[in-house]
Amino acid sequence: MRCKKCGREIKYENGRWHHWTKQNHWAIPEYNYYKKDEKKWKGFFIQLIWFAVLTFSIQQYSTIVEINYITLWWFIPLGTLVLVVIIILWVNYIIILLDYIRNWFKHRSILMAVCLLIIVLAIAGQAFQYEKTVSNSANDSYNSDKLSQILSKLNKPKIDSNKLEIRIHELINEQRQQHGLSKLTFDSELGNVARKHSIDMAENDFFDHININNEDPTDRGLKSGYRCHKDFGSYYVDGIGENIFQNNLYDSSIAIVLFIFHKWNTADEIAQSTVDGWMNSPGHRQNILTADYDREGIGIEISSDKEVLVTQNFC
Fold first, then answer.
1. How far apart are CA 154 and CA 208, in angstroms?
2. pLDDT score recorded for residue 153
């Protein structure tokens, strides 16, 4: 034990503490091991900050999981390699921090040790479960407390794009009938025009009615040999109307250390959320409820990052 005032070694005799050599002050025992050495305090908090950063990195792994599309040496996913390195460092920092805490216990600073142990465990616990909600304007907010709802949907459903197009078409006609309008017929040629645009958006990573060649829906239709012209006597309509929507194969994901679990959407959920999104948007709603339109084509493409790109063309 050392003296709190001078730092020299002291001993306990006859009911009180004494210096080994004569000093001009009373011996005051220093029970707090880390108070004298401020560098150890600084070291502890630096390690704690790095530990928190690594914990946050593990949490966020579900948002960067798509880097697994990049592979090293033709077979090692880059995302998995990054996560393994992060977890190795994370475990190393746990060992370092626990060693600091062990020294607090050893030098009788029990309350301080317990408090710091709780802090470390609280931070560590954040790495084991993390909920991430994917942004989607058409989807209702997901209640993260209902874990059973997630577990029941961990198996990725098979999405048939053609069936999904037909289902969206059916829901569109339901909306038109509810508003006293006639049904739209499904035009397969117009659907091809829409599908080409969805594929173009997925492959060239953009989301717009105007493609990278500065072509609008009517230009794209003419390029594919499809012209929309209607003569109503007192007026005529020339050109293709269009709605587009960006949906997702999953609503949310849970990262549990090395494993990523997604809450997948069914085809019906994707179709319903797409139509709901359009109906809640004034411009898209107007297109759907336009009486002059009598046919539509719908084209869907699923991108490599699990986005469902929907194009709806009207004539």
1. 32
2. 47
Axis-axis angle for helices 38-59, 78-106 (nearest 10):
150
For residue 249, give the nearest of 306, 168, 166, 167 by alpha carbon: 306
Contact 190, 312 (CB under 8 A): no
Q: What is the DSSP letter of 230?
A: E
Instruction: Kindly state the tokens that stand for 155.
Output: 């198996």
Please state, in angstroms and rounded to a whole number, the distance separating the CA atoms of residues 9 and 2.
4
Helices (H), 179-306: 188-204, 217-223, 267-279, 282-288
Please answer whether residues 314 and 242 qualify as being in contact, where contact means their C-beta atoms are separated by less than 8 angstroms: yes
Tens-digit pLDDT profile for residues 201-215? 999 999 999 999 999
- Given a contact cutoff of 8 angstroms between Cβ atoms, the answer to whether 58 and 123 are in contact is no
Q: Is 109 helix (H, G, I), strand (E, B) or coil?
A: coil
**pLDDT of 30 above 70:** no
Pairing label, strands 295-302, 185-186: parallel
Long-range contacts of 218-225 (CB under 8 A, 24+ apart): 220/193, 220/196, 221/190, 221/193, 221/313, 224/189, 224/192, 224/193, 224/196
Rounded to 10 degrees, the C-alpha dihedral 204/209/212/215 comes to 140
Cross-strand bridge partners of residue 301? 309
Residue 243 is encoded by which pair of tokens? Answer: 């709605």
- Pair of tokens at residue 260: 């990523």
Other C-beta atoms closer than 10 Å to the C-beta of 200 total: 18
